[in-house]
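Subject: for your reference before the review

Hello V.,

The reviewers asked for a structural picture of the protein, and I figured it would be easier to keep everything in one thread rather than splitting it across files. Below is the amino acid sequence we used in the manuscript, unchanged from the supplementary table.
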Amino acid sequence: MNDVWLIVHAERAALIDDLTDLTDDEWAHPSLCGDWTVHDVAAHLINNAKTTRLGIVRDMARARFNFDRQNAQGVERERGATPRHTLAMLQQVATRTSTPPAPLDSRLVEEVVHGEDIRRPLGINRIYLPEAVVRSLSYQARTPVSLGGARQLITSVQLRATDTDVSIGDGPEVCGPALSLLMAISGRKAALSDLDGPGVSMLQ
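And here is what came back from the structure prediction:
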């Protein structure tokens, strides 16, 4: 458990470093996460870091148990008046170990996927710890879509990483870097261009 938190904290610190030198225009740039900007995703990560087991129940009740509404309210609550303000708040929560009632690997997914949501549109490259990517990919593959995963999506394909010894599922093959596989099954269509194989069309 402590090892997972070490990786989560390392990913938060790396993202803070990448955000530090961004211009205001880059903070306002669209991310890969729906309609959110880079600034919105950073605010979401602050909200995630502050989430507790009891707090998520309260927030879901306020959102009338609508997950998308709960996320939107969290972004609105944590988004600073300026990028510098938001960055400062992200720094304040970087070493927190609070979590909702979900497996700890879900915290890795949040940091890696949302880190890429920010980095890819801005052309920022990060070499992630293989364990962070593999654990995130495995978590998404076994987690139901209703809980933010991709289990139903990949029931009829085989995911095969070309940069590490990982193979998940059974069916037409989808091959590519583990990070791109993770992003693709997490709904990021931009990552599909990194992938090959007869199963790619089934992820579109």
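For the response letter, the relevant points are probably these. The CA atoms of residues 160 and 166 lie 6 Å apart. The longest strand covers residues 158-161.

Happy to draft the paragraph if you're swamped.

O.
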